[in-house]
Each structure stands twice: as structure tokens, then as C-alpha cells.
Write a structure and sequence with these properties.
- This protein is of the alpha/beta class.
- It has helices at residues 2-50, 67-83, 98-104, 119-128, 164-173, 188-200, 212-221, 231-239, 286-300, 303-311, 322-342; strands at 56-60, 87-91, 113-118, 140-155, 179-182, 205-208, 226-230, 244-248, 273-281, 315-316.
- Strands 1, 2, 3, 4, 5, 6, 7, 8, 9 and 10 form a ten-stranded mixed β-sheet that branches.
- Helix 2 (67-83) links the parallel strand 1 (56-60) and strand 2 (87-91).
- The longest helix is centred in the first third of the chain and has 49 residues, at 2-50.
Length: 348
């Protein structure tokens, strides 16, 4: 009997021991995972508090000495002064900015790599290039909207019009006779003209150029009639009397050309600016994003930065949150998507 009891009791003890071992193992694993998560959170918090603890690479997807490059350097220099750490501009031009944008997605989401870009890579190119190497909404962390650049509506002086209303009336009275110059298919210059034509109910003929210098020459000579150009490039020709400026494309009047009305004053709702903004790779921690956002917001409120941007044809954006930046880009992208689709625009 005693031997029987021992024989029956041994499997029961073994089962009990096995259950205890499994429970202990699960508890140990859970503790390790919890410790790991705690360490990750602590590391993320430390990275946020320390940003930037080392030089920051700022990818600019356009050539050096261009508007985006120069604007990025003005703001980066101010942040470097404020924080005592370098923001290093790394130009990666090509394919309308999409090569550099794709490059920036490869960075670690720790604030060491940022993308300084424009409407082109996130609101326009996605609708012109369906095979992009990145997804604008999934592959980036929106951080800050930092500046805007309006365009100016220029006409050749030989046209007998003095304002936007008269230009629209003239175009309707002379269907098919007016043309407009652009710097190529799908550019903001092209899209500005298409939106203007749609809202005004007029038809203008597209004359694409490889750049603005030749188009300005032909506009002065009267070979083309209309051009939406940047304010710094176009206004000197207006001041010299070679061209006539009718309005700016921003919703509000521009401090860079305060005497000019907006197109929206004649065509309510018309608004177009090239925006400049900052992104990081996907997966950045919210605390880190907010810290970087605050640094850029502080920089663009500097009077020195505003003055430097004005010389480049841009105005500081109103300081805002990453969420506000996201909403603005989404609305801008939807608008250009419709213009591009309605006009069947393809790249050359």
C-alpha cells in the first residue's frame, strides 16, 4: 500500500512542478519584456530631452543655391545658434525633389535626419508620379510648416488690361488668343494658371519653357501674355516697367508686394502658395516631434529670419502644430490632385 501511494504521488508532484515552472518562466519573460519596454520609453524620453545631442542631417531634395536650399539654410542657421548644435544641409536633388525625399525616409526616427521640402514632393508629385519610391502619408512624420511663397500674376504690357477683372473680360472677349508661359508641365506655375483658368471660366493656351528666364524675355516682347512667377524674380521687371503685375496668388495680401491685390479679391477662394515644411522619417516619438516643432516655430518668429526669407520671396508661416501641418498638406494635396486629374496632366 505504501509503495502504491508513492507510485501514484510521483506523477502528481511532477505535474505540479511542471505547472510552477511554466508559470515562473512566463513571469520571467513578462518581466524582461516590461523592462525592455520601460528602457525603450526611457531612451525615447532621453532622446527627446537631449535633441539635438549631435549634428542633425537636413536633407534638401533640391539643388544648392535654389530657393528651397537658401530658405532651409536661413532657418537651420538660426536653430543651430539657438541650440548650440549644427543642422547640416545635405542636398539630394533630382526628379522634382522625389529622390531626396525618398532618401530621407531611410534615416533613423531619432531626430538625426530631417527633410526640408516643399509642396512639390508631398502635394503635387504624388499625383504626377504614381510609382514614387515613398508614400507621403505613411513614410514620414510631419513636424512643422515653416514658410510660404506666393506667386505674382504678370502680364505683358501690351495687353490693354490693368487688373484681374479686366484680364478675365479680355480673355472671354478674345477666346483662344491669350497664352501663358510656364516652367514645364506639372509645375506650380502650370497649376496656378490652370486653377486661374478654371475659376475664371476662360481658356488660355499653355506654352511650356525649360525655365523662367526665357519666358520672361518672351513675356516682355509680347510673344506670351501671362506668367505666374515668383515675387523676387518677377517684381524687378515690374518696377523697371518691362512687365505689369496684376495680383498675388496668396489668400491674403503679401507683405512682399503690399500694393498688389490678391486674385481671391476677384475670384473668391483662389489661393496658391508654395509651402515649405519639415518632416522626419516615420515612427518618431511624439515628444521628440513636439520638441523639434518648437525649435522651428521659434526660429521662424525671429525678425532676422523673416527679413532673410523676404529677400528670397518667402514669408514665415504662422507657428503651428504637427497636426495643423498635416491637415494643411492634406487639403493642398487634394486640391492639386483634382486640378491634375481634371486637366489630364502628365509629365514630359
Amino acid at each position: 500500500m505504501n509503495m502504491s501511494k508513492v507510485a501514484l504521488g510521483q506523477p502528481l508532484a511532477a505535474k505540479t512542478l511542471g505547472r510552477r515552472s511554466v508559470i515562473a518562466t512566463i513571469g520571467a519573460v513578462t518581466a524582461v519584456v516590461a523592462c525592455g519596454l520601460t528602457a525603450q520609453i526611457a531612451h525615447a524620453d532621453a532622446a527627446s530631452d537631449a535633441w539635438p545631442s549631435k549634428p542633425v542631417r537636413v536633407v534638401v531634395p533640391f539643388p544648392s543655391s535654389g530657393a528651397t536650399d537658401l530658405i532651409s539654410r536661413v532657418i537651420a542657421q538660426r536653430i543651430s545658434q539657438d541650440l548650440g548644435q549644427q543642422l547640416i544641409i545635405d542636398n539630394k536633388p533630382g526628379a522634382g525633389g522625389t529622390i531626396g525625399a525618398a532618401e530621407a525616409t531611410k534615416g533613423a526616427p531619432d531626430g538625426s535626419t530631417l527633410l526640408f521640402t516643399t509642396s512639390s514632393t508631398h502635394a503635387i508629385s504624388p499625383h504626377l508620379m504614381p510609382r514614387l519610391a515613398y508614400k507621403p502619408e505613411q513614410d514620414f512624420t510631419p513636424i512643422a510648416h515653416v514658410a510660404d511663397a506666393a506667386s505674382v500674376l504678370l502680364i505683358t504690357p501690351s495687353l490693354p488690361v490693368k487688373n484681374v477683372q479686366e484680364l478675365i473680360a479680355y480673355a472671354k472677349a478674345n477666346p483662344g488668343k491669350l497664352n501663358y508661359a510656364t516652367s514645364g508641365n506639372g509645375t506650380i506655375v502650370h497649376l496656378n494658371a490652370l486653377e486661374f483658368s478654371a475659376r475664371a471660366g476662360v481658356k488660355l493656351t499653355h506654352v511650356p519653357y525649360k525655365g523662367t528666364s526665357q519666358s520672361i524675355t518672351d513675356l516682355v516682347a509680347g510673344q506670351v501674355h501671362v506668367l505666374f512667377d515668383s515675387i523676387p524674380t518677377g517684381m524687378p521687371h515690374v518696377q523697371s516697367g518691362r512687365l505689369r503685375a496684376l495680383a498675388v496668388t496668396s489668400l491674403q495680401r503679401s507683405a512682399l508686394a503690399p500694393d498688389l491685390p490678391t486674385i481671391a479679391e476677384t475670384l473668391p477662394g483662389y489661393s496658391s502658395v508654395t509651402w515649405f515644411g519639415v518632416y522626419g522619417p516615420a515612427g518618431m516619438q511624439p515628444d521628440l516631434v513636439n520638441k523639434i516643432n518648437a525649435s522651428f516655430n521659434k526660429a521662424i518668429q525671429s525678425q532676422e529670419v523673416a527679413a532673410a526669407l523676404a529677400k528670397l520671396g518667402a514669408e514665415p508661416a504662422k507657428p503651428g502644430t504637427p497636426a495643423q501641418f498635416t491637415s494643411m498638406v492634406k487639403a493642398d494635396s487634394a486640391r492639386w490632385a483634382k486640378i491634375i486629374k481634371d486637366n489630364h496632366i502628365t509629365l514630359d
